[in-house]
Every structure is written in structure tokens, then in C-alpha cells.
Amino acid sequence: MIETFALTKQYDPARPPALDQLNLRVQPGEIFCLLGQNGAGKTTTINLLLGFLPPTSGRALINGISVAESPQETRQHVAYLPETVMLYPNLTGLENLAFFSRLAGFRHASSTLHELLTRAGLPAEAHGRRVGTYSKGMRQKVGIAIALAKQAKALLLDEPTSGLDPKASNEFSALLTTLSQDGTAILMATHDIFRAREVGTHIGIMWQGQLMQTLATPQVTAQELESLYLQTVSS
Ligand SMILES: Nc1ncnc2c1ncn2[C@@H]1O[C@H](COP(=O)(O)OP(=O)(O)OP(=O)(O)O)[C@@H](O)[C@H]1O
Question: Which residues does UniProt call coiled coil (predicted)?
């Protein structure tokens, strides 16, 4: 479970907070998509949940544990997928997965690692190929396999589908749905309204550090969501 209580971040006392009193709850099995213009506070939210930044006030919790008080422990429960997954280009997909799993404290057998890559949608022929030869979509799949290997119960994603072609983006969304159905709580920052409508169980619209709207996805069509988004960010 991912939770925030009045979570606030003010980088500069002379400027309004980048994140202002955010209250959020993402339960296992839910995919919460955060929409918002550049500078709305999406990445700040994710960085606070990862414990990369201290909050100015408020609390961020992962599985009920305070991120600020126990960052090491909460990081064990979280997998993070940025826009560009950082992998070692000279290692194969399998070697990268083995390395990052070990870093997270897991020593999986080679057969398990292959299984995880396959579950993440990476074709078997690519497992033993250098990551430097992968497409962006393939690197994202290794990122998902790392999340699977960590058995993370919370997944944070920052614009993971930006730059993916529609098919890769569609495959990626299907993977997220499978992961959430397995009981992962997923928070994804994105600019892609239509993808958010398709994959999210809930959608939040942020504007100038505030969560202005939260809706359950079945409540809106993609067109209604787009109008609501434009209305919110033009106010
Ligand atoms: N390290 C920092 N120091 C000072 N200000 C920052 C820092 N990081 C972000 N900001 C400011 O905080 C605000 C929110 O930024 P943030 O990166 O969270 O937005 P975002 O919604 O993720 O935007 P984008 O869609 O462009 O990724 C912006 O005004 C940004 O300039």
C-alpha cells in the first residue's frame, strides 16, 4: 500500500510548495495514474515516496512504514521505474537482472531469472543479448522483471511509456494490469491521458502541487477525462 498524509515539499521558502498537502492512498490491486502539466509535482511525489527527498511536512508511508523514518526498509518493498531504466549496456538482460536482484538481496537461480524476463514479456532470444542492443521497450521490460524479482508490493513509475511506440506501450499497460492483479499497489506519473484511462483504476489530476481531482476510472470516458484535465489545468 502507498499512502501520503498532507505530504508537502517546499524546495524554496520564497516560492509556493512544489507539493502541497497531498493525501493519497493506493491499495494493492489498484493503479493510480497521476496526470499533470510539467512542474505539477508528480516527480516530487515519487521522490518523496522513494525517500530520495525529505518532506517539508506530512508523511509518506509504504506498507504502513514511514519513508522518512525507515527509508532502507521501505525501499525494500518498492520497485521504481523511471522514464529511462538505468542498466549496464555491456551486460546481457539476464546479467542485469541477476545483478540488480542481488543488490536487492535476492539470489535467484538462472532458471527463475529467465522465467521473470519471460513473464515481463522479453523474448527468450534477447535474454542473453547485451542490453546496449535493446530497444527502449525491451529495457523497460527488464525494469519490470527487476520489480518482479524484488517481489515489490509497491511500484512507482515516472512516465514509463514516454517514447514507447503504441504497441510497446499497450504491452506495457497489459503487464501493469497483470502486476496489479497479483496484488501490487501501483502509482504512475504520466502525460498520457488515454493510456491512464485505459490502465488506471484511479486517476488524479495535479495542478501547481495540489491534487485537484481524483476519480475512479469507470466514472469517465477518455473524452470526458481530457476535458476535465484541460479545465483543471487552465483554471
Ligand atoms: N531539486 C529541486 N529544487 C528546486 N525546485 C525543484 C526541484 N525539483 C523540482 N523542483 C520544482 O518543483 C516543481 C515540481 O516539479 P516536479 O519535477 O515534481 O514536476 P512534474 O510534475 O514531475 O513535472 P514533469 O512533468 O516536467 O516531470 C517545479 O516547479 C520544479 O521546478
Answer: none
